[in-house]
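Hello, quick one for you while I still have it in my head. No rush at all, and the record is pasted right below.
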Amino acid sequence: MPDLNPPLSSVRELKALENAGGRPFASLLVVRKLAAKTASNGNPFLSVDLGDRTGSFGCTVFNDNPAFELLKSAGEGSVVRVEGKVDHYQGRLSPKLGKVAVLSESELGAPGLLDNLVELAPEDADALWLEFNGFIDGIAHAELRATVRAVFEEIGEAFRWSPAAVAMHHAYRHGLLEHTVHMARACRALLPLYPEVDADLAMAGILLHDTGKTIEYEGTLATKRSRRGILQGHVVLGYQLVRKAGKKTKLADDLLERLEHIVLSHQGEPEWGAAVYAATPEAVFVAMIDNLDAKMGMVQRALRQAAEGEEFSERLPGLSSPLLTRPPLK
């Protein structure tokens, strides 16, 4: 049985090590992503993302490394004890892995182990769920409210637990619930500025816009796209859920079409996954709030995971830039 006692370093602790190239370390981590690739010289290698509740990092494992076959057979979602040496690539933590051991099912039951590996939304999930249901109850239009309820009766508990993404934003347990509640708060605050936007339709659209992600994503310790997620995507899956519920509740055709349009267009741009461009006041409103909270979610997570004394985060793909993590001097 692997030694689960300290010294074990968290990802945040590893990222805080400056000028520590070659320093040995040991960590317990989840294999979040695993992709088999081939180098230009024809040699196979693995591109691996490893993480715990404090963050993640990527590294490359070539086929002459003893960890290559072990990681390849263990697959995504496995928990591993890794030993290696701190290294960096293009300014990002990218350790050289040495010894790797996969934890068994019995070892995963060690007290507190999974709590240290699974990243959770920073807000209390029960409180978020209570607030979320209050937003549903606040929809005045009876058929719209019933349509929203019907969708969540179908997808059940999955919405409460699902992440909002594999990596980009709110990519942790309860992340989808947190993201949706944040959007609903922003919606309520901004609606008085835009009387052209129908309040009930906009709120219903926000609460439903990402419901397809409960089908698109699967996995307990590592999130990956399901078969339907790959073949259809969460925009289409969400549209199907909304259409089915709207027909069940006999929502008027015009309202159902507008609600479906919010779901189909909320990604903003076709290159980002939208089926169509936003073409109603409510769809434009929802797409902008979605983009705002997605980007601010990236900011909030980067600030939470920033190592002590760190001035900038690693480059955030969703922002195309690293983030200044130190607060303003006043």
